[in-house]
Amino acid sequence: MTARRRKTEKEENMLICPICRSRLLRERSRYVCEHGHSHDISKYGHVNLLMSQKGGNHGDSREMLLSRRDFLDSGAYGELQRKLALAIESYIEDNEPVIVDSGCGECYYTAHIKEALTASGKNAKIIGIDISKEALRLASRRFGGACKGEQASVELAVASSYQLPIEDGSIDAVVSVFAPLCPDEFHRILRTGGLFVTVIPAAKHLWELKSAIYENPYENEVMPYEIDRFDMIEKIEVSGNFLLKNHKEILDLFSMTPYFCRTSEQDRKKLDDLETLKCRYDFEILLYKKI
Fold first, then answer.
1. Cβ of 36: how many Cβ atoms within 10 Å?
2. What is the tens place of the pLDDT at every residue in 48-106?
3. Looking at residue 118, what DSSP letter applies?
4. How many CB atoms lie within 10 A of CB 102?
5. pTM listed for this prediction
6. Which site among 165, 185, 239, 289 is 20 to 30 Å from 102 CA-CA?
7. Phi, psi (5° rounding) for residue 112?
């Protein structure tokens, strides 16, 4: 691939104003557009670009976020983290790619993607998008000062995956890990030939956890692989086992799953007597190219 011309400082920011859709320029403590709309950067380093501010906090609760952070930091999904980062690095040819993690949460996977690209000599610009302000507060701790200052190599923005504050055709890769799939938005922001990567649970993912809770556990329904205006280029299967060593780890896992909100109190209580649980993970990493 012919290398694109080196991005200028001004071009490196692909965020756009949610009010007028013009490009945002980053200053020390805010983003501002040519029409004078100003969006303050929080002390944590993220900017709120969510159009609807109604209803207070959006996204996962703090309890769920902390449970997910603690579980992921235990390393149980470390193999997925490693293979995801390697897959993205292997398909990114540009030396200065711009990558969006849509529904990034606390940036467990995002941070490792950034590390893998840096280790391979690529100066990546990462944009993490999540609807939860609390998630991005936790995310900022993973990057230290990388999301602060005018030359930040990581930008964190509160926004909806269904209305991404990103310029058309400006992004080299979009990543979506257990987050809402918005193929129209992803297609809009990706350059032609750009990479789209998603991770989905395969049929037997967390089977033992479900067996402990439900009388008749069910396999996960795997989504169709075909996505309009994208070509699938690879599927990577990631599976294995991990051991939950105490009751807290079991509850951390359960609290971060969709089952947490769908399970009756009676079934939830079945976990009360469990102190250890050997469980399998079963994922599919799906990689697509925009056409």
1. 8
2. 999 865 555 567 888 889 999 999 999 999 999 999 999 999 999 999 999 999 999 99
3. H
4. 27
5. 0.92
6. 239
7. -75, -35
